[in-house]
Description:
The structure holds three protein chains of three kinds. Chain A contains four helices and nine strands. Chain A has helices at 29-35, 82-85, 89-92, 117-132, and strands at 8-9, 14-19, 22-27, 38-42, 49-50, 55-61, 65-69, 73-79, 101-107. Chain C has helices spanning 42-46, 63-74, 97-103, 121-138, 150-167, 184-191, 209-215, 238-247, 268-271, 341-354, 358-376, 397-400, 406-415, 443-462, 464-468, 481-486, and strands at residues 142-144, 174-178, 195-199, 220-226, 251-255, 275-277, 298-300, 312-315, 321-324, 392-395, 422-423, 432-435. In chain C, the strands form three sheets. A seven-stranded mixed beta sheet of chain C has the order 1-7-6-5-4-2-3, with helices on both faces. Chain C has a three-stranded antiparallel beta sheet with strand order 10-12-11, with helices on one face. In chain C, helix 4 (121-138) packs across helix 10 (341-354) and helix 5 (150-167) packs across helix 6 (184-191). At the B-C interface, helix 1, helix 2, helix 3, helix 4 and helix 5 of B face helix 1, helix 2, helix 3, helix 4 and helix 5 of C.
Amino acid sequence: MAYPKSFRYTKEHEWIEVKGDLATIGITDHAQHELGDVVFVELPKPGAKIEAGKSFGTVESVKAVSEIYAPASGEVIEANGELQNKPETINSDPHGAAWLIKVRLTSAAGISDLMDASAYEAYIAEKGKETSA
Amino acid sequence: MRYLPKSPVERQEMLAAIGAKSIDELFSSIPEKYRLRAPLKIPGPYSEAEVIQYFKERAAENAIGYTSFLGAGVYNHLRSVVTDTIIQRGEFLTSYTPYQAEISQGTLQAIFEFQTLMCQLTGQDVANASMYDGSTATTEAVLMAERLTGRQRVLIARSVHPEYRDVLKTYAKNSGLRIEEIPFTASGTVDTKALQGALKDDVAAVVVQSPNFFGAIESYAPLAEAAHSVGAMFVVAIAEGVSLGLLKPPTEADIVAMEAQSFGLPPSYGGPFAGVIAAREKYVRQMPGRLAGQTTDSEGKRGFVLTLATREQHIRREKATSNICTNQALCALAATVHLTLLGKEGLREMAQQNLAKAQFTLAEMLRIPGVRRTFDAPFFNEFTVEFPRSVKIVNSHLLREKIIGPLALGTPYPELTKHALVCVTETTPRAEIERFASAVKRALEQPI
Amino acid sequence: MNEKIKKASRHVSQSEGLIFEKSSPGKRAFELPPLDVPKAEPAKALAAHHRSEGVEGFPEVSEIEVIRHFTRLSTWNHAIDLGMYPLGSCTMKYNPRVNEFVARLEGIATEHPYQPQELSQGCLRILRLLEKSLLEITGMDAITLQPAAGAQGELTGLLLIRAYLQKQGNPRKKVLIPDSAHGTNPATAVIAGYEVENIKSESHGQVDVEGLRRLVTEDVAALMITNPSTLGIFEQRLPEIAQILHAKGAVLYMDGANLNALAGITRPGDLGVDVMHLNLHKTFSTPHGGGGPGAGPVAMKKILEPFRPVPILVEKENGRLALEPVRPDSIGRVKAFSSNFGVLVRALAYILAYGPGVRQATEDAVLNANYIRRHLEGVYELPYPLPSMHEVVFSDAIQKKNGVNTMDIAKRLIDYGFHPYTTAFPLIVPGALMIEPTESESREECDLFIDAMKAIAEEAATQPEIVKTAPHTTRVRRLDEVGAARKPVLRWKPAAPKSTAAD
Lengths: 133, 448, 503
């Protein structure tokens, strides 16, 4: 799957798309692939505050739970209700229909330090080499 | 040794295959100075007959041939021999936790049936495959309420079993939970006025037991309403599950913590038993303990698996809903077999017999001069009476007549010195009840 | 054969339904003796509490249906009585039948925990002898038999540590846990109110002692260690580890899950352990029963004795035993009614059968594990080559090259008649195969296991598909765990009434 050029990416495999002071956050195709079939997602409610670098929710497969880390700080405006009924969307469309939360950013600090699409692709290719070494 | 399937020759051959000269070599990673050179000082080895002899001698030093009027969280009920026939089968007794579902379908389907029975009994949507016992189930229910509400204050009725409250206090000490006790009224049930006074929007849970420790039956509706009015969860603990054969289930509760001992488990000096947590469907992901779920295999056949395991310690580790790793499976299986044997009519009939015997016993006791009923609330198979003299003295007289008398309440409830908790089940013959009543009468007539 | 006739087939493949699906109103499996007192009037006696109907949906079947139903279900299980469970750190040993017999004796199974203590001296003597035997085996000073399971024993141990440190003025904040530890360890530490700090294992799979030295401060309450480790390797520097902790006033907790490698050979108390829990359902043969009950007594050094859960078993002057319910510094109760007594009876029966000879069980356990290791070395990768004790951990690195992983191998092992070993644990070995045969396996069973594992390795190399799609011979194929987790169905419900044609 291609990594959209308009997104920025974290080392923990989240993506963020910024439009003005609003942002959409999700997890990457690489992340869903590592997790396997997603069975459940736990997301914050609208109004909740998220803090850059801190966990704001979890994604579960049958045998594992992963924390989701905030790429930036802000206030949650909307959580993707679709995912309660169809968590498998994260596997099929992680960069589109399976966005996790929409936030109003309180700070844009750090976002420019995040990887762009080609840097992220290089990052995961490098990681792939490490584990099979 | 009869449990070790090796001959001396085989041991030698295996050592040779490993390339070791002696078994001692295999322990060389243990520093010499820490290796025991003398045999352990423990009795044995005993042959099978000697093992049996040892325990028969201990049994003879216990209470054989006594009629007991004790309840208080552990109940004597009829148990079919069929239950042991089933749970003694090696495939159930000696099998492991059903993590490998394909070769554990027997255990998993039985757990699924247990979960269903518990839901039917309690009127709740989901039930887990058992906690250690009623006391820890109640504690885990409270911790669940804490997680779900984010609040730390807990109001628990003083009429909840004293040892259940003790266990909660032990767990609460390290979790920031603040436990407050709500008194009972002269009727023996929860003081709703006091409860209202204590309720604020910082309360995570209101916890009651029904029938409560005194045998009195609580009214759920007003208690649930009061709890919900401040957004607290309503937790009901049940120590005597047979009561659900005749009593309305706690459908108003958010979480039910039940002890399953009454369903085919012998008293066994206090354990092992099986606790259950049952709750509304929306709380299932915060529920501790194992859950068996229905599914299909790759050919469409129905099967069962442990599910929602991500709540549990082996995956969540420090973020687990609980550290519990067991599910008292064999005890839960015994309860499943027992309840299946009893069935709808059998459970109802058993409950009716309990009620009838308890009513009869109370009537007999009230004919004894000086004996009074403590509380006037409706009861199931336990009730509280007041003696004109020390319960201890009455009971020591009863012991001489091979009767184990009712539980003295003065220690857990200092204001109830001279009061005793009488329990009668379907197992107590009428003749014994009458003998008990006349023995009490005689005990009260004795000079001090 | 007339295909319209529904033929009863052998129960092994028959789809035995749920007991609720066999239910029919009016069937009875159990009758009570007739009531010998006047009937009560429930509606009157119970007023608004009265449940006027029976429990809805409760099964109504006959006795033979109950027997057949559960007998059939039982045949779908693997069990120790049938064959080996090579599960690492589970110690699936033989469950002696005499233990079941004595636990059911009149005067043992029938006793009420609140009956007078003078009528319970037999029970109390059983508890006392078990206490003494376990103290002798562990080399400790005091013990509590109250915890109902290993995990509850762990919690009790940590609560004892907290109380002890609290009494000295500061309960401290952190518990150190190796990354190879069982999941109950960190889960328990959190419940006990501590933060968990993970300590990495060094290259041999042992606790990194230099790393530990740096981590132990006066903020650390304890280290929770398993010995032998979950790799089956003895922590040779355990006494040194104990010293490092003690120098900073911290406590050494040992998870006793692997005691089957040590009983009768060495004693944790001698090695510097301050407190440990035991798993009676592992080392001491009490049956797993499909997932419980167990028991998790906690043995400790004198320093922790005052904090033990009440009631405390004491010996009085005249030799009588008593349970004392009050101790000022006790952490309180962790369970109602003092213990899982029935499980304790079984454990004592096991100990008495062996006596001091329990050492030989340990020796055979270690012999079996090493025998299996010797024959599978080279066939499977051995990530940590230090000597194994009662269990050995391989990895699937060799087989992974053909896309076959430890889970696949485990499932294929089922086709060879064995329960899988422990897969994917400990976490520090990716693709782990954790194998513990116990002393209950004969040479013949060990050889069968070795042959099976060799055959599967061969299959992984030459026809990997058959391994990846295993098991092939079980009653059900691989089950859809994803579906079960996405849309959990956790109980049977009666079928909805059929809608009418008009709807």
